[in-house]
Amino acid sequence: MKEIQTTAIVGMGALGLLYGNQIAAELGTSAVRFIADKDRIKKYREMNFTVNGERRSFPVEDCETAAPADFIIVAVKYNALPAALDTIKHCVGPDTTIVSVMNGISSEQIIGERYGHEKVLYTIAQGMDAMKFGAALTYTKFGELRIGVRTPDQADRLKAMTDFLDRAKIAYVAEDDILHRLWGKFMLNVGVNQTCMAYETTYSGTLTPGEAHDTMVGAMREVIALAKAEHVNLTEQDLEDYIRLLETLSPDGMPSMRQDGLSHRPSEVEMFAGTVGRMAKKHGLSTPVNDRLYERIKEMEAQYS
What we know:
Structural class: alpha/beta
């Protein structure tokens, strides 16, 4: 694989801006561009983006005239993935590497079905406390990427990717068992994202003993049972490790799902409790905590004006 020089990002949410800002800071603005349709370009150009209070501007390119990129970051919400895959169609060349920093356990499969599984490196973004309201991104913890391959023939692609991350000074860990890590992050998101939204609280609210904390842990344990049914060895130790990771984040921070709730945007509940419920039925498993979270969050969304 050739050296990665150009990056295209679809999605100017918290993670899209987080990585776009870092790449631009280390490698220059010519190394990164956001890809969007004409309507979004107009919207973006009317916004004054800031990162931790400092004004930032980024190149935004029309998806219909975009050139192929060496590296694509998909940083959209679950509901926006189909449209995002259309948006990047001109950016995908024969040697393009694609990563998804989306939550959940299905985006890599969906992207691979569209553009080729060999192009997709499985990636988990974790440990950041990035929050974005309007055009303002704030964070105290940048976090890290966990990356890995599903087939040995992706080794050269992974090497090019890690070389790029080193140059961009983006922290990462190359995982031997990326599927285990993917399910671990899914377990955390199912617990903390949904609990923060349903209980209208912050990270500290989920860590304080009480109903919210018990709900978060209960939802995570249902994912452990589901993972075992899917032949992924997720354990109670993984749960404890992710709780410790949660304790390192800003206590007043909140995940993207809670931010969506505050902004009255559709949440990713279908990707979390919805996925858990559907997969559990296949294995004859009961998921009462996730079922309750699903109902509560759907009720909250139904009240949006």
